[in-house]
Amino acid sequence: MKVIFLGDVVGEPGRLALYRALPELRAEFEADAIVVNGENAAGGKGITPRIAKEFLEQGVDVITLGDHVWDQSDLALWIDSEPRVLRPLNLQRNNPGNGCVIIDTAAGSLAVMCLHGRTFMRNGAENPFTRGWEEAKALKEEDGVHAILVDIHAEATSEKVALGYHLDGCVSAILGTHTHVQTADARILPGGTAYMTDVGMCGPYNGVIGREAEPVLMGYVSGMPYKLPVGGWPAIISGACITLDSESGKATDITPINRIYEK
Fold this sequence. Notes:
Blueprint: E1 2-6, E2 8-9, H1 11-29, E3 33-37, H2 49-57, E4 62-64, H3 73-78, E5 85-86, E6 100-105, E7 108-116, H4 128-141, E8 148-153, H5 157-166, E9 173-177, E10 187-188, E11 194-196, E12 201-204, H6 213-222, E13 235-244, E14 251-261
Parallel strand pairs: 1-3, 2-12, 3-4, 4-5, 7-8, 8-9, 9-11
Antiparallel strand pairs: 1-13, 6-7, 10-11, 12-13, 13-14
């Protein structure tokens, strides 16, 4: 089974570049599934039902989210109707939506799980280590699914690395999002789990993690708050392709993806 996972989509440039990249990437990597973090797709803050539907229509199989999950108020009213749009599993249990989904692919069943970090993060999430482990065990023992991809949306690299070792051998891949900068540590952990601290983002390439550079710089220099508009073109598409055995759940390869698209 080959699964492509793409990092946080930021604003309109990220969306439009994503739509151009999807058919190219699926064909090039012969991907059985494509998972995308849509965390910042709506003007850099969350995602709307309309945009989520657009992602799915364009060929995205599962959408994961993160700390901006409820920034667009209409999502909470809609998310229960679409199981392929995931809010973090370890948010408080009274939150709408679900944090894990099982989809069918040509190469077998694939479970996708979304977890939220707690270090330097908001949302009062439950422990991702215990919730992730419990969910992964249930997927294997109760649902019979061994191909499991985890999006860990977290700030601290230490928390992501630690979760990687904690779930090593229990899931197929642990891929980080949230910080928007692709890390150079794509590897297979000793237990057979593909790991990458952050897969990067899909959004404006020239700027500060998807925002126009100048207002970000003004804020850092002056210490005053500024509006931070989403940047423009060109746009980068970042992520990774994971190859795994759908029966054993073990990963055999992880290949980083980086593409630049002009308007």
